[in-house]
Amino acid sequence: MYCPRFVYFMNVLKIQQHEHRRHLVNKGRDIHVLKMVQNKEYLRSKIGVIDKSLDVYLSSPSLHLVGKVDEVLFLNDGSAAPLDYKYAYWDNRVYKTLKMQQTLYSLLIEENFGLPVSNAYLVYVRSKNHLEMLPITKPMKENALTVLEKIFNITYHGAFPNAKTAIRKCEDCTYRNLCVS
Ligand code: SF4
Question: How far apart are CA 151 and CA 83, in angstroms?
Answer without folding.
Answer: 25
